[in-house]
Amino acid sequence: xxxxxxxxxxxxxxxxxxxxxxxxxxxxxxxxxxxxxxxxxxxxxxxxxxxxxxxxxxxxxxxxxxxxxxxxxxxxxxxxxxxxxxxxxxxxxxxxxxxxxxxxxxxxxxxxxxxxxxxxxxxxxxxxxxxxxxxxxxxxxxxxxxxxxxxxxxxxxxxxxxxxxxxxxxxxxxxxxxxxxxxxxxxxxxxxxxxxxxxxxxxxxxxxxxxxxxxxxxxxxxxxxxxxxxxxxxxxxxxxxxxxxxxxxxxxxxxxxxxxxxxxxxxxxxxxxxxx
Length: 276
What we know:
Blueprint lengths: L25 E10 L2 E11 L4 E5 L6 H8 L7 E6 L2 E5 L9 E2 L1 H8 L2 E4 L11 H11 L5 H14 L15 H13 L5 E5 L7 H16 L3 E5 L3 H7 L2 E6 L2 E6 L1 H6 L4 H9 L3
Parallel strand pairs: 3-9, 3-10, 7-8, 8-9
Antiparallel strand pairs: 1-2, 1-4, 4-5, 5-6, 10-11
Helix pairs in contact: 3-4, 3-5
């Protein structure tokens, strides 16, 4: 592990992790991933800082889902460096061409630092709302059930679904199921939370609620990463937007820079043909 000597300095993703004077919440440099002969991610570099919302946008097949799976350790990068704060999870091999080397202990530590809200929510259908939220902190983190249940009930109240605590997922609307998934992720006390298509199941009013919640989480100092195809939502909620196409991030900046004044022709073409 490497501790930050100057947390106020923001590193750039072209630096090696070992040279950093300050550490972002999420650090990826040179991430590559192939399936057979098809290279899906081609040298991706990405940072998410504490209290920052970063959205990854791009067309279907660009590599967004693969990137999210690798960031959340559901899959691994073939090459590249990945770190969560001062925990270096994967480092590049030597110059002889070996791929990324993953540290199992660091992977376990990293999994305690992030939560993810899946597009399909992945709730246990036979467990109640409260049980879905409570089980992981008790089983994985070994925390006292009474403490976790009290936190879970506070989160359900914050998300306006306290009255659903004893129902099972099939008794809930899509928007309510998503809120349960968010409560489950937050109950792990993560430093980073990822959203896979954060508004796919929501009507316009609930989309506004989601916008407010994400900004509230960032205001509390949490790093937020979003993969989305909904351009209006990305524009409104994000501090930075990264445009991913053909396995590469070809443009990155504020929503105004990327979505109103894109430099890359591929970005301009995608945005001109996108309809929210």
